[in-house]
Amino acid sequence: MSVLSVKDFSINFLRYGRGFKRERLCVISSLEVEINAGEIAAIVGSSGSGKSLLAHAILGILPQNASVTGELFYCGERLTPKRQAELRGSGIALIPQSVSFLDPLMKVGEQVKGEHHGLAEVERVFKRYGLEPEVMNMYPFELSGGMARRVLVAAAVISRARLIIADEPTPGLSETLAREALSHLRELADQGAAVMLITHDLRMALEVSDKIAIFYGGITLETARREDFNHGGAGLRHPYTRALWRAMPQNEFEALSGYQPYAGIVNDSCIFYPRCAMRTSQCRAAIPMRELRGGLVRCTNEESLHDEKIGEKLDEKG
C-alpha cells in the first residue's frame, strides 16, 4: 500500500531581486517519490538537491514565502495544509537531523510524552531503545549523542506514525552508532511503517533501504532498487547514478567533473546535460520520468541506459 506519493512536485520561493523587483526562485522541480508501507526509501543527493526541502513540504512547515505545485498524497488522500497540520506528529513523524530539536529547558521524558501519551508508555518505548527509566528525568544537555538520537527515535515511534521521515540521522555518529540508528529505521519499516531516509551517504543507504531515489538540482533523476547496485551497478539506469556509484571509495573512487547547478537555474534541457558523457541532441529537450527495468529514470538516451556501453563511454571521458 502506498503511504506517500509525490508526483511532479515543485517548490518556488518569492524573493526580491535588484531594484526590489519581486521574482520567484524555483528550487525544486519535478520531484517524484513513492513509498509503500513496510519500505525504506532513501532520498540520496548532494547538498542543495532538495532532500530536506521535500521533507519540510510534506510536513507543511515551509516558510511563508514558499509556494508549491504538483501532488502530495498520504495513504491515497491529498495532503492539504489542513490535513498536514492534523497528521504532523501523529500520522507523519520527523526524526530531525540535529539533536538541537530537543527543548533544552524540558526533561526528555516530558518531551516524548507530550499531551497524548502516559508515562508508562514513555517508559516502555525508552526501554525498547536501551534508555533506562532515569533518562526520562534528564535534560538534553545531560545525554550523550547516541542517547539523544535514541530519544528522537523514541519520540517518532511513540506517535505510531505511518510515515517516518528521518532527515540525515547518521552524520557525526561513529560507525557503530550510525548502524544502530539505521537498524532502528529498519525495525520501524519491518513493523509496517513507511520510512523516508534522507541522506547523502549512498553506502549507508544501501545497507537498509529497499529503494533509492536519486535527487540532483531539485529533480529526481532515478529511482532504483537496492539490488540494482549489485554487480558493479549493472542494473542502474541514469549516467549520474552510475557516476555516484563509481565515485564511492570501495568502487573506482572516480570523481565526476563539474558541479550541480545552483537553485533557480532552469532550462529546457536535461539538468545533467553539461556533465554527461553520453549527452546527445535529444538531451536538449525536457526529459520525462519513465519506467524501465523495474525502476524509474529521467533519460531518453537508449545507449546510456545499457551497462555495457556506458562503462566504456565513461572510461573514454576519464
Q: Key terms for this structure?
A:
disordered C terminus; alpha/beta; 12 strands; four-stranded antiparallel β-sheet; Rossmann fold
Describe the overall structure.
Helix 4 (about 120-130) packs across helix 5 (about 145-160) and helix 5 (about 145-160) runs parallel beside helix 6. It is built from 10 helices and 12 strands. The strands form 2 sheets. Strands 6-7-8-3-9-10-12-11 form an 8-stranded mixed sheet, sandwiched between helices. A 4-stranded antiparallel sheet has the order 2-1-4-5, covered by helices on one side. The longest helix has 16 residues, at about 175-190. Helices cover about 30% and strands about 25% of the residues. The radius of gyration is 21 Å and the shape is globular. Residues about 310-318 have low confidence and may be disordered. The protein has one domain (about 1-90, about 160-315): 3-Layer(aba) Sandwich (Rossmann fold), CATH 3.40.50.300. It is α/β, with parallel strands linked by helices and about 325 residues long.
